[in-house]
Amino acid sequence: MLKYAATVESESEHPISQGIVKSSSDKYDLKEFNSIPGRGVEGKVNGKEAKIVSPGYLEEIKIEIQQKEKIEKLSGQGKTVIFLLIDNKLTGVIALADIIREESKEAIEELKEIGIKSMMLTGDNKQVAKWVADELGLDDYFSEVLPDKKAEKVKEVQNRGMIVAMTGDGVNDAPALAQADVGIAIGAGTDVAVESADIILVKNNPKDVVSLIKFSRATYKKMIQNLIWATGYNIIAIPLAAGVLYSAGIVLSPALGAVLMSASTVIVAINAKLLKYSLED
């Protein structure tokens, strides 16, 4: 059963697919591979029509799931349950557990510290989504979201008056990345996701998103500081150079004005250079 499943999933780019493929050391020849958007994958294996599908697909084609209690128990444990169909007959069930990376928890905690709300969009069922959300401490989650509905969910959050940054790596994430105010793609993701994003992360590390936000905030802060300095300098120096206080005996010579202008430029450059050290802190 696992060999059939690994064969069908071998052409898929979904993270779940890669887990199944790695669990089998041998595979059959696969023909006529096709992706069923939001539902699974299918293909010809040994002359038979094999499919790896979600519970929602079984409901659509009216296939009754046996031993529902066991399936629900697996889902309640935070496992993603998928089904193997061979010639449209339910042949097997595969349960996959999401492993929560420690850096993911740390990233969510750091985002909360800087006032950023974290939400999750997933095609998994509600039990799995809730388990992951609780483990990570997410502020909200959307479960059982079909690929073509992800962009709508992003728009829904935007309609709440929030600025949305979306992070994704798959083909299914591309429309949502384009809809978000800021699209962030994982460098190891699909070409479509990378092309749709505004920012590409080289490493597959969620903490890089936190670093990105901190860097952008620090950069904006430096811009405001330099703008205030340059504006304040010109408001004072230009009138002096024009002789506004000549009657009071205060005159700014052209030579001194040139020196002060250069000094202003140096101060702005030094302040910008300090951005590196503020980020290290």
Please give a structural write-up.
- This protein is of the alpha/beta class.
- 48% of the residues lie in helices and 19% in strands.
- It has a 5-stranded antiparallel beta sheet. Strands 8-9-10 form a 3-stranded parallel beta sheet. Strands 6-7 form a two-stranded parallel sheet.
- The chain is elongated.
- The model has no long low-confidence stretch (mean pLDDT 84).
Please report the number of helical segments.
Answer: 12
The general outline is elongated
Q: The CATH topology of the largest domain, please? A: Rossmann fold
- What oligomeric state do these chains adopt? single chain
Characterize the main sheet: 5 strands, antiparallel
The CATH architecture category of the largest domain equals 3-Layer(aba) Sandwich
Terminal-residue CA separation: 53 Å
Coarse structural class = alpha/beta
